[in-house]
Design brief:
single chain, mainly alpha, Arc Repressor Mutant, subunit A, Four Helix Bundle (Hemerythrin (Met), subunit A), 4 domains, two-stranded antiparallel ribbon, two-stranded antiparallel sheet, 22 helices
């Protein structure tokens, strides 16, 4: 179980929304601390920290040895005002969010359901029949845990909390969920999972999600008047709930600038002082960041000369990065999880991207990749494609998600040394780049998406094998912070009960 302030804040946000939507009302009791620990897979200190903040803000009253009591109360008018503010800020973003999560999260749902056994389906069946809408959250949390990718779980939670789901209950004749329809859709999803039919699973889940999106928009339109002056609240994926060091985030920015930014044609980085000025940090912070980059094998500090940039093309130079360093091990977990999400979601994302690119954007992408072939920088073709899509997608949430995944994937810089030692890499990258260019010029979205998907799936398996060869255990590769409403332990108890 984890104990950190980031998760305490997330649990706090979770309960605040529940209070305001009257999921809990004045006088209700919250679950006991040990129950919350099991549900969220966090430590008692994390739960107590969240409860302490809720008490300080006047939402609850805590008494030693007893469950916390809800103090928050609001009138019907106050509820209406809160709902208006909450949904008015999000109304315009909801279709974008649902479409984006269909592209990114749904493939992971399909993958998870195909890995489940009969006991898993028994748990899901019981959850599907529960009357509480929160059990739908438990249902999908249980599914996503199967792939052991904390990033997708975090994305699911952030998107769900953004929507305020499943908290709005029946009020003034409007109900967010139709319980009968939801149960039927979930039963169809379970049946598809039992059949191990990916296409059927996809369609069943898509039908459920589109039902929910239609219901929430109907709910909003019935209760929330249009307010054109209200500024839309963008969706932000808060990946780092565990508050990473400044140097870590800064290292990612430098690697990006080495790949695609201001440093891409340079042999040496600017001085510490100039770098500190560029990124708005102290010189000492910049020195520590360069230390991180040296450990990664991205740079090499040379006395009297400065900091040399070690690109993938010359990764045979310099020291082999030490994958046993704790910080590198943590970052490699983020790298592999982001790689899996990109590999599993890119087919749909890339197909939509090329279909919506303008003629000028397709030409720009093709010319960019042609340039990499000409100057022998084809080793960054995959990263540049994802960065391009993150920048130019018509879906704002895809821009946010793929932007974050691109950044996390850059933590894989140490892999360059090990991947370079494998035969045929140059030929693979050249063939891949040429195939992508041809698909772009032909405006063939299906071939474009298939080419990238096949390449990413292959490279993901290679990356995972390399890490396993260097002593990484499954728990190492899924070690980044995660958050769930139904832990494995809780699910077992649920099944037995």
């Amino acid at each position: 179980m984890r104990n950190d302030e980031g998760f305490a804040n997330l649990i706090y946000e979770y309960f605040v929304v529940r209070f305001h939507f009257q999921y809990y009302k004045y006088g209700d009791s919250l679950p006991k601390i040990d129950t919350l620990c099991r549900q969220f897979s966090v430590s008692s200190l994390t739960i107590k920290s969240a409860l302490k903040r809720l008490q300080e803000d006047g939402y609850i009253h805590r008494c030693h040895g007893r469950s916390a009591q809800v103090l928050f109360r609001q009138s019907d008018r106050e509820l209406d005002d809160y709902a208006v503010r909450f949904f008015s800020k999000r109304r315009a973003m909801i279709p974008d969010l649902y479409q984006s999560t269909e592209l990114v999260v749904l493939p992971m749902m399909v993958k998870s359901l195909c890995q489940m056994d009969e006991q898993d389906f028994a748990v899901l069946t019981r959850l599907a029949e529960q009357p509480d809408p929160e059990d739908q959250m438990r249902f999908f949390c249980y599914i996503l845990q199967k792939v052991q990718n904390p990033l997708v779980m975090n994305l699911f939670w952030e998107s769900t909390l953004y929507l305020g789901l499943p908290f709005p209950m029946e009020n003034k004749g409007h109900r967010l969920y139709d319980a009968g329809t939801s149960r039927r859709r979930l039963r169809e999803l379970i049946a598809a999972g039992r059949a191990k039919n990916p296409a059927r699973i996809y369609e069943a889940h898509l039908a459920f999600q589109r039902d929910v999106s239609k219901q929430i928009l109907s709910y909003i339109n019935a209760r929330i008047p249009e307010q054109p002056d209200i500024e839309t609240l963008p969706f932000v994926w808060k990946v780092y709930r565990d508050r990473p060091e400044i140097c870590g985030n800064l290292a990612i920015r430098v690697i990006h600038d080495v790949y695609l930014g201001d440093f891409r044609d340079m042999e040496f980085l600017p001085s510490y002082e100039k770098l500190a000025g560029k990124y708005g940090v102290s010189v000492s912070t910049m020195r520590r960041t360069i230390g991180v980059l040296n450990q990664l094998g991205a740079t090499q500090s040379i006395n009297g000369k400065g900091t040399r940039i070690l690109m993938l093309s010359d990764s045979e130079t310099g020291q082999t990065p030490d994958l046993t360093v704790p910080k590198i091990r943590r970052n490699m977990a983020y790298y592999l999880q982001s790689f899996e999400l990109l590999a599993d979601s890119c087919k749909g994302v890339m197909r939509m991207a090329l279909q919506t690119f303008s003629d000028a954007q397709r030409t720009e992408l093709a010319d960019l990749l042609k340039g990499y072939l000409q100057n022998k920088r084809y080793y960054i073709s995959p990263q540049s494609i994802f960065a391009f899509v993150a920048e130019h997608s018509l879906l704002q949430v895809i821009q946010e998600i793929y932007g974050k995944l691109y950044g996390l994937n850059l933590w894989g810089y140490p892999m360059a040394k090990y991947r370079k030692e494998m035969p045929g890499l140059d030929q693979t990258l050249i063939a891949f780049t040429r195939a992508v260019i041809a698909a772009v010029l032909d405006n063939d979205a299906e071939r474009f998406s298939r080419t990238i998907h096949a390449f990413m799936q292959s490279e993901y398996r290679i990356a995972k094998d390399i890490l396993v060869e260097h002593g990484y255990e499954p728990e190492d590769l899924s070690s980044s912070p995660s958050f769930s409403l139904l832990s494995t332990e809780e699910a077992a108890r649920f099944f037995q009960g």
